[in-house]
Amino acid sequence: MNKTDKIFVAGHRGMVGGACVRALKAAGFENIVVRTHRELDLLDTAAVRRFYAEEKPDVAIIAAARVGGIGANSAANSDFLYENEMIAMNTIMEAARAGVKRLLFLGSTCIYPRMAPQPIPESALLTSELEKTNEGYALAKISGLKLCEFLRREKGLLYHSLMPTNLYGTGDNYDIVGGHVLPTMIRKFETARVENAASVPLWGSGSPLREFLHVDDLASACLFALSLDNPPDLMNVGSGSEVTIRELAEKVRAATGCTAPISWDASKPDGTPRKLCDTSLIRSLGWKPVIGLDEGLRRTVEEYRAAVADGTVRLAR
After folding, report:
1. Average pLDDT of the chain, as a whole number
2. Parallel, antiparallel or unpaired: strands 274-275 and 209-210
C-alpha cells in the first residue's frame, strides 16, 4: 500500500472505521474516501456498484457492520444476518468487479465455534456449532471472509481478513440495550457514581472469560496487515490476555470511581463460556498490541465523560 493510494474506509463513523481513518492519517495517508450511510447505503447493490465505478479506489477497508451486544444479537439474529451479509457481499464483490486491487475485511472472533479450543486458532473456523446468541452476525462475517478467500484464489485479488477480539475505546456505542459489555459497564458504573445509586445491575453470572483489545491497537493491526506483500487469508487480532466478566466489572468500577455494589442477574445469558483468540500468527509476522486493559479503560472513561459533557456520546445504533 502506497501513500498515494486512494483508500476507501467503509464504516468510518463507527468505532473501528474511525480508528482506521485516524491511523491512516497519522501514517501520512491523505487520499482517504469515506461516505455516510445517507450518502451511500451499503445494503443497496446498485449504489455500491456506482460508487466503486465512480471513485475507483485502490484499496478498501471494510469496517462497516451492524453490531450489538448479546441482547441485541439474540433478539434479532435475522436482521444481523441479513444486513451484515448484504454489506459484506456488496462491498467485497463490487470492489472485485470494479478492479479494486486490495481489500481488507474486518470481522470478529465470534465466527469461531462456541466450544472452540482455547486459545482459538484460525484453523478452528467451521469445525463445530456456533454460539446461538450471535449466530446471524457470525454467519455473515464467515461469508465475507470466505468470499475474500475465494476471490483471491480464483481471481488473484489481494483480499484478506482480520478477526479482532472484543473491542473497546474511542467512538464506542454506549447504548444500554444494544451495546457491548464493556461500554455498557462504563455507562452503568459512571451513571451510578453520578447518581449515587444503591447498586449496579449486570447481566449473567460474571463467570465467562473474555479478551479485550483497544480499537487503536486494531487500527495498527489493519495498517500492518495492509503493509504485508503476501498476508495470510485470515488472521486473529487480540490482546492475548483474558479476564472474567466479574473481574472486568471490578476494573471498570475502579476506573470510574464508583462505589456501588454489583447486582448480578443470573437469569440473563452469559454467551460463550470462554473466548480467547490465538494471535501467534500475526505476532510471528511482527505485530503486537501496546495498550494494556487498565490504561485503555482509563482513557476510555475519560473520553466517555468528555463526550457526555459535550453531548457527543453515542447512545444508540
Report:
1. 95
2. parallel
Find out whether 171 and 219 touch, Cβ atoms under 8 Å: no
**CB burial readout 107-117, b (16+ within 10 A) else e:** bbbbbbbbebe
d(CA 8, CA 55): 9
Catalytic entry in 52, 112, 137, 168: 137
Compute φ and ψ for 160, nearest 5 degrees.
-145, 175
Cis before residue 119, ω within 30 degrees of 0?
yes
163-222 pLDDT, tens per residue? 999 999 999 999 887 778 999 999 999 999 999 999 999 999 999 999 999 999 999 999
Q: How many CB atoms lie within 10 A of CB 302?
A: 11
Half-sphere exposure of 221 (CA within 13 A, CB side): 32
Question: Do 169 and 215 form a contact (C-beta atoms < 8 A)?
Answer: yes
Alpha carbons within 13 A on the beta-carbon side of 103: 32
The answer to whether residue 137 is catalytic is: yes
Going by C-alpha positions, the residue among 239, 248, 235, 256 that lies closest to residue 308 is 256
**pTM score > 0.85 for this model?**
yes
